[in-house]
Amino acid sequence: MVPNPRHIRRLLLVAAAGAFIYIQVRHFSAQSHDAGRLALAGADQPDLSVAAVVIMACNRPDYLHRTVESILKYQKAVASKFPLFISQDGTNGEVKNKALSYTQITFMQHVDLEPVHTESPGEHIAYYKIANHYKWALDELFTKRNFRRVIILEDDMEIAPDFFDYFEAAAKLLDTDKSIMAVSSWNDNGQKQFVYDPKALYRSDFFPGLGWMLTKSTWMELSPKWPKAYWDDWVRLKEVHKDRQFIRPEVCRTYNFGEHGSSMGQFFDQYLKPIKLNDAHIDWNSEDLSYLSEDKFLIKFGKDVANATPVHGSDDLLKAHNLYVDVRIQYNDQGDFERVARQFGVFEEWKDGVPRAAYKGVVVFRYKSSRRRIYLVGPDSLRQLGV
């Protein structure tokens, strides 16, 4: 009997299909085995990262280049601990090309083509775009990529040599002390004439920003109610930080060179250009930072303020100049604080009843780059300090 050609073709097709299925099942099984092996291996490996570092960028490729080069100078040695990201808001081609030219940096792009509706006529829409970009980027890093901590930088910053060591030491504080909301590398009164000790750190009731680290749990709290604009001033509201405080250094670990940006160079010549960027080598891993705990810092800072020599009268600057000890000058209200601050040249600005860099209403700075401290003390500060 002659075999039916159609029947033979059908048998060959069935055999080929069977072989194909067998090969695919073996391949899938091998992949699953490898994936499981890698997953188990990963489970044995702890997460070595301290924090993701994100540079917030928009449309300044030259600024971005300067910032990235400054960061890479010190990040290469600790790349596994501080994975680096650039988050671009918008579609500027030069910025995107610059970001993509760095193979060791992960690029993220936020494109929102929806029109911006400001709450008041004449408002600068840039502040709305910035707030929207921040929320998107932090949601991406904390929620989608599951980082435990994130350090936020902007595309107009240079960093100090000990920037990463500082934040690694500070990460332990964030994890253990829930009265600390964030850690900053910035001091608003960090101009050369007002600083002396590169090891000195302080608690502050005022959010400094400009190079800061927060935890995932804090972001999960902030994200659902993130504001449409002016996000940094929003964080400074008492209803938002809820009496939690911020760690800041005496000597800045970031330098802001952004003369041209959304704030149109406001305060640049007076407050930003003279900032002292730390250049001293500090071994933060060997520093005991337990004095920054809420109870210890309150006692220590209170004693320092109490031991300072009181200065009274209208010519505070002259009287402080003629003394060679720490001094404290009491102000009565915001207007009085602005008058005294203006004499010395420190920041006069308040937000929600808190002067910049203040702790319990006290603003402290060095006198003419010396060891001496000047304390500007609020009307209720001594009581809050328990003095």
Automatic annotation (TrEMBL):
It comes from the Eukaryota. It is an enzyme of class 2 (transferase). Transmembrane segments: none annotated. It is a single-pass type II membrane protein. It catalyses: N(4)-(alpha-D-Man-(1->3)-[alpha-D-Man-(1->3)-[alpha-D-Man-(1->6)]-alpha-D-Man-(1->6)]-beta-D-Man-(1->4)-beta-D-GlcNAc-(1->4)-beta-D-GlcNAc)-L-asparaginyl-[protein] (N-glucan mannose isomer 5A1,2) + UDP-N-acetyl-alpha-D-glucosamine = N(4)-{beta-D-GlcNAc-(1->2)-alpha-D-Man-(1->3)-[alpha-D-Man-(1->3)-[alpha-D-Man-(1->6)]-alpha-D-Man-(1->6)]-beta-D-Man-(1->4)-beta-D-GlcNAc-(1->4)-beta-D-GlcNAc}-L-asparaginyl-[protein] + UDP + H(+). SUPFAM superfamilies: Nucleotide-diphospho-sugar transferases. One of its GO terms (cellular component) is Golgi membrane. Keywords: Glycosyltransferase, Golgi apparatus, Manganese, Membrane, Metal-binding, Signal-anchor, Transferase, Transmembrane, Transmembrane helix. It is found in: Golgi apparatus membrane. Gene3D superfamilies: N-Acetylglucosaminyltransferase I, Domain 2, Spore Coat Polysaccharide Biosynthesis Protein SpsA, Chain A. Its EC number is 2.4.1.101. It holds the Pfam family GNT-I. The keyword Transmembrane applies. GO terms for molecular function: alpha-1,3-mannosylglycoprotein 2-beta-N-acetylglucosaminyltransferase activity; manganese ion binding. Its cofactor is Mn(2+). The cofactor is mostly bound to the substrate. Pathway: Protein modification; protein glycosylation. Belongs to the glycosyltransferase 13 family. Initiates complex N-linked carbohydrate formation. Essential for the conversion of high-mannose to hybrid and complex N-glycans. This is Alpha-1,3-mannosyl-glycoprotein 2-beta-N-acetylglucosaminyltransferase. The lineage of its organism: Eukaryota, Viridiplantae, Streptophyta, Embryophyta, Tracheophyta. The gene is LOC123080684.
